[in-house]
Design goal:
Length: about 190
């Protein structure tokens, strides 16, 4: 299956206990919904059927303890550590809102400025708790820039055309010299 034909929904972590359970991190918007997608596939093509899923005791609403069919002991569970779990793209639900996008649909899009000049390409979407950030690898210099994924900084998304329009914040300009601070000890 080509890379764009499947979407990563989660990743297996360390074994949990001795009966084949594993820690599982879900990447779905509703983390528990990973159980509703049916069979999951690893990067190497192995098909895993989720047997049970329960929230993990450690912090994080996207973390679970999972059991898969045919994984019955700790050694088998350990061999799955760090495996990413995928489903075919067509299993994803249709998005109801025109301003909603799957991360996988945005990664790889060209990033152009308002005048249409190519500035780089989207390499990742992040959320550190204060909202989505879009990471753009800049063509000039090869560095990355992160922009809030909102209408002000990304005014247009055209997945069909393979591009987003970005409006980065204005540069702060050249650094100004600061006056030296003097320290005086007072008694």
């Amino acid at each position: 299956m080509p890379d764009g034909a499947r979407i990563c929904l989660g990743q297996i972590g360390a074994p949990h206990g001795v009966c084949g359970q594993v820690r599982l991190r879900s990447f779905t918007s509703n983390p528990a919904a990973i159980a509703a997608y049916g069979s999951l596939q690893t990067e190497d093509g192995r098909i895993l059927r989720l047997k049970s899923l329960r929230p993990a005791k450690d912090p994080g609403k996207d973390r679970f303890v999972a059991a898969f069919a045919d994984i019955c002991d700790r050694d088998a569970a350990a061999r799955l550590a760090n495996a990413k779990l995928y489903v075919p793209r067509e299993r994803l639900p249709q998005l109801a809102d025109a301003d909603e996008y799957y991360h996988a649909d945005l990664i790889g899009l060209a990033a152009v400025d308002r005048e249409g000049r190519r500035r780089g390409s989207v390499v990742a979407i992040h959320n550190f708790g204060a909202g989505d950030l879009i990471e753009v690898r800049l063509d000039e210099g090869g560095q990355s820039a992160m922009l809030p994924f909102d209408a002000r900084h990304v005014p247009e998304v055209d997945v069909g055309a393979g591009r987003i329009v970005i409006s980065p914040p204005a540069s702060p300009g050249p650094a100004r010299e600061r006056p030296a601070l003097s320290r005086k000890a007072k008694r």
